[in-house]
TrEMBL record:
Residues 3-138 form the Flagellin N-terminal domain. InterPro entries: Flagell_FlgL, Flagellin, Flagellin_C, Flagellin_N. The lineage of its organism: Bacteria, Pseudomonadati, Thermodesulfobacteriota, Desulfovibrionia, Desulfovibrionales. This is Flagellar hook-associated protein FlgL. It comes from Halodesulfovibrio aestuarii. Belongs to the bacterial flagellin family.
């Protein structure tokens, strides 16, 4: 077989370029310390690496959500702990006021202390972390509660559904007694009296025929048409209404949840309505029991009017609300543990995925050094041989 000079030159150039290409690739790997610099270097490895990177990014999002959730929950837990302490003091205060051993002046002093405790609970219910309200459900940009007026009904024949609205402003309980029996919005005038100083002094008023609004100083109550009222004759069996402080829930009944897994979410805020209760703005009526804010509203109304029996009737309700809050605090603690444990598990999994990515993409420095030395040696040898070949001419065969 005859080998032409052009074939020798072509083969020599091919070997030289191949050797140079190997050197250049190894130099690139040495510079980047990666064996996978382009998808063409290892198509299947590049595809797997992209999948692992996407998975690792998703895990990082879940891990960040766990960390954020732990912060929210820890802050909410701290607020609930403060509330529990305040409720312990309130419970002791209520038990003292129910003993019938205190004067009205002393009861009034207790009511002042109770209002201070209620203000503290109101602030805790509006706890924020940064700009996030933690007891507003998923309506995190708005405060959970606003102060308003509510009514305590001391009449077994009436419910909150009979009260259309409570209007005005009052820093002290406004005590209303019906002095005539009849029907709101009926055909006859109905007399009543009200006190703004706990029953020390009274002002009379009249609910006109066809009207449903009972005006009492700077406040008023509008009853549903047809609501039956009974005259108070001193026995406590008539219609007694107390306009007092209330708290209206402004948040959402749905919690804010963060994804901490492919099919797993974690509630990181709480719906204040399920913790503190208060007034439902959609209906104007109190949330179902145990309703802490409404129980405290009833309690302060009875304290400010010297009604020890009324105070005694609130103790069990307040204690039930306290137990409910402890359950909510325990739920928050359980969520914190879930976030902590999940973050730990995700961290381990993400470390494994990062390790897999490294095994696909990263070069072995020791092996790379050896391969680089070999490639340079081969290139130099090819280069030397090629130089000798290119120096051949016809005189070399004579």
């Amino acid at each position: 077989m005859r080998i032409a000079t052009s074939q020798i030159y072509t083969a020599s150039l091919k070997q030289m370029n191949t050797s140079l290409n190997n050197v250049m690739e190894l130099q690139m790997m040495t510079s980047s310390q990666k064996k996978l610099n382009n998808p063409s270097d290892d198509p299947s490895g590049a595809a797997l690496s992209m999948q692992l990177r996407s998975y690792s990014a998703t895990l990082l999002t879940y891990e960040d959500n766990c960390t954020l959730g732990k912060s929210y929950l820890a802050t909410a837990d701290g607020a609930l702990q403060v509330c529990s302490e305040r409720l312990t003091s309130i419970s002791e205060l209520a038990e003292q006021a129910a003993t019938e051993t205190y004067t009205n002046v002393q009861m009034e002093d207790m009511a002042i202390e109770l209002r201070q405790e209620m203000d503290s609970l109101f602030q805790m219910a509006n706890t924020k972390m940064g700009e996030i309200y933690l007891f507003s459900g998923n309506d995190i940009e708005n405060s959970a509660y606003e102060k308003s007026l509510g009514v305590t009904i001391d009449d077994s024949s009436m419910t909150h559904a009979d009260v259309v609205s409570v209007q005005g402003s009052a820093s002290h309980t406004v005590y209303i007694q019906m002095t005539e029996s009849g029907t709101a919005g009926g055909t006859e005038d109905l007399d009543y009296q009200y006190s703004t100083d706990g029953g020390e002094t009274w002002t009379t008023g009249t609910l006109l025929a066809g009207d449903t609004e009972i005006a009492a100083g700077d406040t008023s109550i509008t009853l549903a048409t047809g609501t039956a009222v009974t005259a108070e004759d001193g026995s406590g069996e008539g219609t007694n209404l107390y306009i007092r402080t209330a708290y209206e829930y402004e948040g959402s009944d749905d919690e804010l949840s963060l994804a901490i897994g492919e099919d797993t979410t974690l509630g990181v805020t709480l719906a204040g309505s399920s913790v503190f209760g208060g007034i439902d703005p959609a209906t104007g009526e109190p949330y179902p029991d145990p309703n802490l804010f409404e129980a405290l509203g009833d309690l302060v109304a009875y304290m400010e009017t010297g009604n020890t029996d009324g105070v005694a009737s609130c103790i069990e309700t307040v204690n039930d609300a306290y137990e409910h809050m402890l359950q909510q605090a325990a739920s928050v603690g359980a969520r914190q543990n879930t976030a902590e444990n999940t973050a730990t598990a995700i961290g381990i999994t993400r470390d494994c995925s990062v390790s897999q990515i490294s095994s696909i993409e990263d070069a072995d420095a020791t092996q790379l050094t050896v391969e680089m030395a070999q490639a340079e040696y081969v290139y130099e040898a090819v280069l030397s041989t090629t130089t000798s070949v290119f120096q051949l001419n016809i005189l070399s065969y004579l």
